[in-house]
Amino acid sequence: MNPSYLQGEAERILTRRTFLTRSSTGLGAMALASLLPAHLRGASGNPTTQAVPGALKALHLPPKAKRVIYLFQSGAPSHLDLFDPKPKLKEMTGQELPPSVRRGQRITGMTAGQSVLKCVGSPFEFKKYGKSGMEITSLMPNIGAVADDISLIRTMHVDAINHDPAVTFFGTGNQQPGRPTMGSWIAYGLGSENANLPSYVVLVSGSGGQSLQARYWGNGFLSANYQGVQLRSQGDPVLYVSNPPGMSGDSRRQLLDAMQTLNRKRLGILGDPDIASHIDSYELAFRMQTSVPELVDLSTEPESVLKLYGAQPGKSSFANNCLLARRLAERGVRFIQLCHRDWDHHGGLPDGIKAQTRNTDQASGALIQDLKQRGLLDDTLVVWGGEFGRTAYSQGDISANSFGRDHHPRCFSLWMAGGGVKPGLVYGRTDDFGYNIVEDPVNVHDLHATMLHLLGIEHTRFTHRFEGRDFRLTDIAGEVIKPLLA
Amino acid sequence: MSLCSVALQAGTAPTLEPRVDFNRQIRPILSEHCFACHGPDEGKRKAGLRLDRQEDAFQTLKSGQHALVAGQPEKSTLVERILTKDPDEIMPPPKHGKPLSPAQIELLQQWVRQGAGWQQHWSFIVPTAPELPRVQDGKWARNAIDTFVMARLESEGLRPNPEADSVSLQRRVTLDLTGLPPTVDEVDAFLADKRSDAYERLVDRLMDSQHYGERVGQNWLDLARYADTSGYHFDGVRFMWLWRDWVIDAFNADKPFDQFTVEQLAGDLLPNPSVSQRVATGFVRNNMTNDEGGADPDEYLNKYVVDRVNTVGATFMGLTVGCTECHDHKYDPISTKEFYRLYAFFHNVPEKGLDRIRTDNPPPRLPVPTSDQAARFVEADFALKDAEKTLQDRSNELGETQEKWERELGERPPVLASTHGVAVRWNFDGALDPAVAWKGTNAPEFADARLGKALKLDGKAHAEGVSRSDLGRTNAFAVSAWVRIQGDGALLSQMEKGPGYRGVDLLISDRRFQTHLIHAWPEDAIKVRTKEQLAQNQWLHVAMSYDGSAKASGVQLFVNGVRKDLETEKDQLKGSFATQEPLRIGSRNGESFLTGQLDDLRIYSRTLTATEAVSLTFEGYAAIVAKSRGKRSDEERNEVARFYRENHAVDFLRAEKALAQARRNKDAFYSKIPTTLIMEELDPPRETYVLVRGDFRTRGERVQPGTPSFLPSLPAGPTNRLTLARWLVSKEHPLTARVTVNRYWSMLFGSGLVKTANDFGSQGEWPSHPELLDFLAVRFRDGGSGAATTQRRGQKTPHLKPWSVKDQLRLMVTSATYRQAATATPEKLTRDPYNRLFTRGPRLRLDAEYIRDNALAVSGLLNSKIGGPSVKPYQPPGIWDGTDSVFVQDHGQDLYRRGMYVFWRRSAHYPSFATFDAPNREVCTFLRQRTQTPLQSLVLMNDPAFVEAARGLAQRVLKEEPANLDRRLIRAFRHTLGRKPQPDEVAVLRQTHEQQLARFQADPAAAKALIAVGESKAPESADPVALAAMTAVANVLLNLNETITK
Q1: Where are the beta strands (DSSP E) in A13-125?
Q2: Closest CA to B730 of B279, B257, B312
Q3: What does the pLDDT look like over B982-1023, one tens digit per residue?
Q4: Interatomic CA distance for residues A116 and B1006, integer angstroms
Q5: Which residue of A has its CA nearest to B911?
Q6: Whether B341 contacts B706, CB under 8 Å
Q7: Which residue has the higher pLDDT, B823 or B98?
């Protein structure tokens, strides 16, 4: 075979697949790399731009973070009860929200019919944590304990007022379904650092509340190679990774050998490079049959670590997923997305918040602490937040120990840690009701731009051509929020 | 990147300056580098310069200069600005990030020098049939397609491959036209057919197969975003399979594509539309819908309409009109206003933006009974009418029959209820029984009643007696009383306070008569209540009877002697409900105080029968019945009539029961009749406005329905969907035919002649064979001959009917281009890596559904039934966990239906399909991706559906070739791939078989485990070890690249 054929082959493999860097067929990417034209090989000779094995080929900026762990809190946690203390609101509990605050803004169909919108303060105490004195709820002592490592944004806002469009917007930069999610963009742009695992992995926990749709980790118009791969807590951790009952790993290897012999023979006759890719895919699948069970086996973690997270091997929980996130980060997975359900507290908020903080606080704090101990926090960006906030007024009646809050997209809180984020910072200010932003608003495009910046990507230069248009994660907007950078 | 554009540029570097082609060479540069600021988007236009339209591009600029002066580059500021080195002056501006290459700058100068010739964008010009090109090799062509392909190959100095061997070709065309592989018998028959037109006959046979409609239909389902769920939020179920089956039928009948289009977009607006034509309009309604509480209906209604415009724009016109929802198009001449004019066509559906329906179709919908259902429905309807008539007759007779009954009563007075087993009887005739203590601030009051006097209860006071131990879990007891209620409350209770509520009560709540027997509420209790509500301010006899069985079925409630239908809310009584609490009359331990009157309260230490309940009731009427008719008050007359009707009018009651049954029968039929979403038109139509920046809350100018101005105008007729549909398939429309033939080309060849099959606009890719595309489009639109310049000897002249998809596909698959061998030499891979020049036959991985269909067919498990409701085959646990719907798997033959019938849940797709690039169909999908990933390998190796298919194949060949191993292996190979294996291939399989046989002989339990995968059962007679070893071999075969590739 002549070099130009091989070069074509190399381009195909590199542009068509993500988590392949080695293969058993002799057409390994390492060998191929030397045949590649410079624009595909990456490394442009400029010392400030680092080569990456993804579509970007080289980073635009020196990166601070190499990977992301996104702890998505589905259903929208109440900023007013967790991250944004409002003593004035508490004083006004039971009184009508002043119209000067609401200013006739859009509210959902669930409270639009209420004759009066009554203020309701948080029944929970806020505490100052760490040297930074960051004020957050006493229900989250473990996140409090790492306050000096995190940047708390109190002025996030979105346009969407309902879950699905807001989650879609957070994921893709657009309310309408159809575009790639952030994890897909990053897997596509940066490529993989692990030959045996996908570069975008999703972990789901919790039940009840809002539905989670597969498109929340979808690849949109990018190749399906960049789709989030769900690590499951029941059955096979990755779909169909286990051999069928009665078939051992050795048997599988024998069958694979037979299959590959027959495939190689066809490759020899037809010369179709797709057959070479097919052969490679099976070898990687075979390696995953070992690497995935090893990855999800938490029983190898020391007791102290399990305790730190509150994880229990074999159980499905946010805690287990946080620990798995660390293990994925260690293995070089680019984008690790956790989705934890049931923050949608339209009613019974006090009990609901208590239950949800019980389920998430310890493991969230533990993850930061653990990453830090292992030196991984420096180049891992951790993000914690939901799709919007909740209203200062109660949905339904306020009783002695119960009330609800409706959707509130005009301001809410989200925190980030590690990966070049300024530690111990509180960013942005909201009014006395946690209803409007007073200064330093951050929209979703800004958040995306900032995250990409930390990963060494200029968001305006990271595009993909589809239907004749160059698309960006940040659509046509987004500013890097400089004060958030360390 | 397009290889052909590279080739084209390579061909334009000559010594003699060749003519620059505006459309091919200049427009793409202007579109990519200039239109963003000098294009159709008025809001973003700079310096008043517009370069997408000829009439604007040559105008005098504000500065007095001209961007373009034909033939005079030195006077053209465009040339000046692209050549300057001044960073403030240079175009495109550096911050735009799309600098021109030196070759592009040179081309632009050449073009201006040559006179700056202009053409409309190629795809916006109505296609005309081009002349067949002249070729040197005139023998290769089988039809006109080949002449065009050969002309291009010759210009590139390339040669086509020889024809594929029969088996490969048969497998390719069979998979392409039916989505199923040929059987071994079919392969042998085709090999044996030595007629010169054997292949054409094969193609005809495949097109006559009902599986043809499934295969071509599947491609349409992606465009039409067909799914079995609503998409947004809860993603509830919907029923659209009737529409899906309409599509299959339409392709099988080769419904002309113009008619196919009109019926789907506007079947409801045709004169006297048939059911089928109305079903067809489901195409428009396949959009996602929302049920999320609190969502804004206007917001979602807008999304639905936008989706329809996008779908129609892409499917029929290959245009990305979606961009213009928020701003004028950056590249194509469509304005936002024109987008909303298209929008107005689809804005008139009588639907809601928020339907809140999660388990059924929202309106407008059409019930479509099967012929059997229709007949039985009519029958049920007649039966209902008859029952209504009968009841009316019996009702009319009531006066007469009541008289007769009263007469007989007088002659033979009824037996009064037995006093046997009466433990307590309090008649409240002006005083309380000494055993009962009054608990109220004022003295008890009494009122006239049916039987003497009754106790008045004011909702505050009650009476108490001593606790009764005979009201126990294993004791039979009964309570009877007369009541006249004004509000809810307890008649009688003996119950502890909450939260446990141990005890028993008789309660009116929500005006329903009910009883609790509670050990510990709510987990250990019985609760039953009447379905119907009690009348207020009327004397009623009520009774409760309990048989000591500790089951809800042992409790009966009677009202006026009639045993009532009950709802059982709790039926879990394990513990005792005995309590020391006193017996309370008119309340329940400090709550549920009754308002009304109570009389003749009896407690029986036995059950009461229905006859006794009637007798007890009659006691209250006896005095009235004894009066002559004329002396009864109106109330008395009504009550006696009611008592008679409810208890003694046997014929009337029978007719009443029959009517209820007839109603239920009809309702049951009704709920079984499948429905499908359809289009209807609001009259008058909704008003449509431009929505500023796509925001549904910000209305701009009001618009009327209409089409973009750069396209032909609408044909005569009302400005509605029907006219729009006719416009799309009119002879003047430049896009529909081109886009459609291009899509069918890509279905067979993997890529369209226009690679950007969903973008025929100025950012789309230039066609690889523009004349071929136009030839096919014109033949599709008008029909005509598909012959090459010189016919091969003995070959029929291909003739195409207008808008015939079958004829179009037939021309394609019978071309020499299609029939080539797929072999790729290194030279061809270098010169034509993506086979855009067709130097070889198409060799492509199958679509997700066909990978599964193929495995099922090969295994012998396939259920080839066509159409019907979607099915839910095996999937791993937890796939639907992110949603609140529960996955209930189907069984039996439904597990083996073709992939296109698998339940398509948008939020949680059938996993193996998702893995093999099947879209979730949230929106119109034009081209599926074709990726290769290790997750796909895992599916084929380990998904139970594929493991079971391997075992099916093993069973099949063990039966067919029981004696000889090699023959068995060859048979398995041929089932899977059609062709005969070569000796070294058999050797590989034989060695694998030996290895696996040895393993399973050493571990028979493993063999049994492997062959137990799947719900189909291995034959009892099978030797598990032999079957498992062969299953493993079959697993190898089903995983081969060749198996999943056409």
Answers
A1: 67-73
A2: B257
A3: 999 999 999 999 999 999 999 999 999 999 999 999 999 999
A4: 68
A5: A239
A6: yes
A7: B823
- Sequence-ordered list of residues with C-beta below 8 angstroms from that of A472, at least 6 positions apart, any chain: A173, A459, A460, A462, A463
Token digits of residue A193: 């650092």
| Cα B349 to chain centroid, rounded | 19
- Rounded CA-CA distance A297/A289 in Å is 13
Compute the Cα dihedral for A439, A445, A446, A451 and give only its sign. Answer: positive
- Mind listing the pLDDT tens digit for each residue in B118-156? 888 999 999 999 999 999 998 999 999 999 999 999 999
Q: Is the pLDDT of residue A29 over 70?
A: no
B695: which 2 tokens? 């925001």
Q: In chain B, what residues touch A277 (CB-CB under 8 Å)?
A: 932
Q: Tell me which architecture the domain covering A67-234+316-484 has in CATH.
A: 3-Layer(aba) Sandwich (3.40)
Say yes or no: A19 contacts chain B, CB-CB below 8 A: yes
**What is the ipTM for the molecules in this complex?**
0.84
pLDDT, one tens digit per residue, over A135-185 is 999 999 999 999 999 999 999 999 999 999 999 999 999 988 889 999 999
Report how far residue A13's alpha carbon sits from residue B769's, in angstroms, rounded to the nearest whole number: 28
Question: How much is the average pLDDT of B668-684?
Answer: 91
For chain B, the average pLDDT equals 92
Enter the DSSP assignment of A181: P
Burial of A334 (0-12, 13-18, 19+ CB in 10 A): buried
Q: What gap in Å lies between CA B962 and CA B975, rounded to an integer?
A: 16
- Three-class SS state of B689: strand
Q: Which residue has the tokens 């407008």?
A: B364
Please list every residue in chain B whose beta carbon sits closer than 8 Å to the beta carbon of residue A110.
293-294
- Whether the Cβ atoms of residue B793 and residue B787 lie closer than 8 Å to each other: no
Structural domain boundaries in chain A: 67-234+316-484
Reading the block at residue A198, the tokens are 């996908």
Contact B1006 A468 (CB under 8 A): no
Instruction: Catalogue all structural domains in chain B, each as residue range(s) with its CATH number.
Output: 3-119 (no CATH), 421-605 (2.60.120.200), 942-1038 (no CATH)
A409 by Cβ neighbours in 10 Å (0-12 / 13-18 / 19+) ranks as: buried
How sure is the predictor about B106, in pLDDT bands with cuts at 50, 70 and 90?
Answer: very high
Residues A244, B947: C-beta atoms closer than 8 Å: yes
Q: What is the DSSP letter of A483?
A: G
Q: Is A485 on the interface with B (CB under 8 A)?
A: no
Task: Give me the pLDDT at residue B16, please.
Answer: 62
Rounded to 5°, angle at Cα A72 from A68 and A74: 165
| Residue pairs spanning A and B at CB distance below 8 A | 256
pTM for the complete prediction?
Answer: 0.82
pLDDT (tens digit per residue) in A307-321? 999 999 988 899 999
Strand partners, A69: A336, A382
**Partner-chain residue, chosen from B906, B908, B932, that has the shortest CB–CB distance to A281:** B932
Do A166 and A160 touch, CB atoms closer than 8 A? Answer: yes
Name the residue facing A213 among B878, B907, B1005 (closest C-beta): B907
Q: Please name the residue ranges forming H helices in B84-183.
A: 102-113, 144-156, 166-178
Q: What percent of chain B has pLDDT over 90?
A: 74
Mean pLDDT value across residues A90-103? 92
Q: Which residues of chain A make contact with B232, given a CB cutoff of 8 A? A: 164
Contact A163, A76 (CB under 8 A): yes
CA–CA dist A271, A269 (Å, integer):
6
CB B457 within 8 A of CB B595: yes
DSSP category for residue B814? T
Quote the crossing angle between the two packed helices B297-317 and B336-345, to the nearest 10°.
100
The pLDDT of residue A20: 39
Task: Give the mean pLDDT of B519-535.
Answer: 93
Instruction: Give how far Cα B377 sits from Cα of B662, B668, B676, Å.
Output: 11, 10, 18
The pLDDT of residue B606 is 95
